[in-house]
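quick one: heme C bound model?
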Amino acid sequence: MPRGRAAAAAAFVCLGILRGQAPVPGDGPRYTPEGMLVKPEYREWVFLGSGLGMTYGPAAGGEPRFDNVFVSPSAYRRFVETGRWPDGTVFVLEVRLAESKGSINQGGHYQAGVAAVEVHVKDEKRFPSKWGFFAFPENAATARVIPPGANCYSCHEQHGAVDTTFVQFYPTVSKAAKDKGTYQER
Ligand code: HEC
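yep, here:
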């Protein structure tokens, strides 16, 4: 970028901060010009916990899988302070296959390859219900938003303990929500 333009961009960001508009955080959602979500680089994000073989519908059965949940670090920090997810929060649900036979293992399960990656984004201006859901097919770099009528929205709205998210299953943040009074028993 030419120096003049870089300076102008920096001034624009500063102006945003002065006016009280939060600048887009570095770990917020990124979209293509067509409005597809770019798959987040979540490997170094905050790990909220793992579910093992969880089933929340009749389509259950088969080998158990691990669900690993990650959240963007800036949203995590804000949640610990306030018990609320800020605009721009990004969650990743990484589903991994479970294996039991390998190396010295005698019992129990350990995690293997990724079976699915799903994302939940809070972007108040972009989505009618403030949150959007995405599912990334294998090796896909981008994904289109799942339409509002899908069961992702209804189940999360009806059963999520905090703002359509399943904080009741994330022990490292559920206490913050209870302390701040944003937790709903569900
Ligand atoms: C019947 C209820 C139900 C439906 C339908 C559902 N989920 Fe979830 N979802 C859950 C539960 C329970 C958890 C938390 C436990 C876990 O799996 O680790 C969760 C967690 C998540 C998370 C982690 C962040 C959060 O919000 O807590 C993402 C991302 C996610 N789901 C995406 C999806 C997508 C995408 C769909 C639709 C294709 C979907 N879910 C449909 C119940 C549901």
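Confidence is low (pLDDT under 50) at residues 11-21.
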